[in-house]
# Entry
Amino acid sequence: MPETVLTTLEYALLGLLEGAPMSGYDVSRFFATTPLAHFSSSPGALYPALKRLEARALVTAMLDTTLEARPRRVYSLTEAGRASLDAWLHQPVTRDELVRDGRAPLLRFSMAEGHLSTDEILAYLEGFRREVSGYLDELREYCDRDAGNYPLLARLALAHGLRTYECHVAWIDYALGELRSWRPAGDSGTDRESAR
Amino acid sequence: MPETVLTTLEYALLGLLEGAPMSGYDVSRFFATTPLAHFSSSPGALYPALKRLEARALVTAMLDTTLEARPRRVYSLTEAGRASLDAWLHQPVTRDELVRDGRAPLLRFSMAEGHLSTDEILAYLEGFRREVSGYLDELREYCDRDAGNYPLLARLALAHGLRTYECHVAWIDYALGELRSWRPAGDSGTDRESAR
DNA sequence: TAGATCATGTAATTTGTTACATGATTCG
DNA sequence: CGAATCATGTAACAAATTACATGATCTA
# Structure
């Protein structure tokens, strides 16, 4: 039982390395060139994070010495790393995550392939939706109560918040629809293969 | 010329203190109870940040000793602080801000009252819109190029990103409309009074 | 062959989180 | 009167940013 709580960046690294073993530079290229996971991508964040994961035995490094004099440390996931990632992916969305680091819920969703069954993913999205809806209710209540005497710009900024969370809900409903149409009837396999 | 670059939290503090002098606890209450500015609100972040601002002479503390034995340090903005805030509020939205800390552009907008003229606010929003649109183009291009062989969940997560930025654009257009209808003809005053 | 960029990191500094500490005041 | 919460912080620690360092390899 690891019971170690990692940072969002570290979980993102585990997810990446599960897909394919990578060196620190590979990871930095990935973060810099793909729209997913707009994490730090700076070496001062990445290399220490990979070392931390190695120290916890969640990843292992293999020295690639095909080019000697600059050996690449290629990291790959260990069983413990995969277990740690799996445990994280199974956590439902919390309110705190929603307002503090809005990206974590989406990150988990995007990496769930091969870890959550279709039913679990549907349940995850439903929980996500509940949290967003709950927060939206709170925001709307706050608006009705206090926003009347806000200056115009602050009021517009509040409206932006409302719209953004409404957009979340709309996407969740869209995703639920897509997933249900993908698996229309009583299929509920863990669906490991389709990941690539 | 201060030329000091502050953190987003510190600018948020300047904006808050401009509205009304506050103690550290007042600020923490504000961050904890209003939907705007979901910043840290933890004392370990707030009190040191206020001290940093005081050390740079951007705020001053007045000891409120009406209750002795627990004097409150009530902070208010100095002229230098207002100038620093003003300079920040005049900065246009950059791509980097957009992907790294999505909240800063909105924060600036919401605090611009009394610092930017209506025309400047319109220009700010137009710049904001350009950046979001540009990033959206890039995202769409990336989708067309690479998303085909992504697994389903990653593809859906990408769709979420697209929708979110589209939502930004829609709000910007809405805000532009509101601001223009508020000031339909050739009025371009700095509009200081309507705040609070 | 000089400069860019690939590829790998380390070090100093700043910042934020978590947890603790302290004493007053209010509520049941 | 004891517990919660108001109100003010501090200290230890973890993490990220910025800047630097090093050498190889490609490119004009």
User: Anything to note?
Assistant: Confidence is low (pLDDT under 50) at residues 189-196 of chain A. The radius of gyration of chain A is 20 Å.
